[in-house]
Amino acid sequence: MYKSLFIDLDDTLWDTYHNNKECLEEIYTDYHLDRYYASFEAFYGIYMPHNLDLWAKYRRGEIDRPTLILDRFLYVLRPLGITRKEEVLAINDDFLRRTTTKTRLIPGAIELLEYLRPSYRMFILSNGFREVQFLKLSNAGLAPYFERMILSEDAQIQKPHKGIFDYALKNTNSRRAESLMIGDSWEADIVGAYQSRIAQIWLNPDGLPAQGFTPTYTVRSLAEIRGIL
């Protein structure tokens, strides 16, 4: 039934939460952010909600990429007196560079890709930034499993908007009825695919409730997908 699988990268295959938190702790230590913050957890507790809010605004088209990458660090560096755009962006660049070296994957990622590779065409579909996504995919050993990566920067529109899914179908010669989206983000991956009339597998390890409709499939782990495909 399905021939083309569109798979999200961050927190679906590549463990963004743990990899990025490790990089942020390195930034916290190396830039001596304890000059202001009582602990790394205090710093992280301010940075992460703000970062997630910026990404939500980016998905909705309310802010552009330069605003996102400047403001997420400016917000937490300003109390230390670090406000020069060049200095803030240099720290952001350092953070992004560090993320490309991390290789922790969501449990079962390689095993699932090995299982799927003989039977399906597979593509990454991501809102992430080009300069880091390709390195993350390669350094983590994921690149050989995918024909290509489709990024929101290529389509000029972010998930969950229908346009990026249409772009992905067109640029991979995939039929809508024979395609399936696998992702962890309810808003970006599942709602986006649903609104684009593409079947979905929601990776939902925390057992969160669906909102507004029932996804085609819901799993708590990547291993469960083998029972579907």
From TrEMBL:
It comes from the Bacteria. Pfam families: Hydrolase. One of its GO terms (molecular function) is 5'-nucleotidase activity. InterPro entries: HAD-like_sf, HAD-SF_hydro_IA, HAD-SF_hydro_IA_YjjG/PynA, HAD_sf, PGP-like_dom2, Pyrimidine_5'-ntase_YjjG. NCBIfam families: HAD-SF-IA-v1, YjjG_YfnB. This is YjjG family noncanonical pyrimidine nucleotidase. The lineage of its organism: Bacteria, Pseudomonadati, Bacteroidota, Bacteroidia, Bacteroidales.
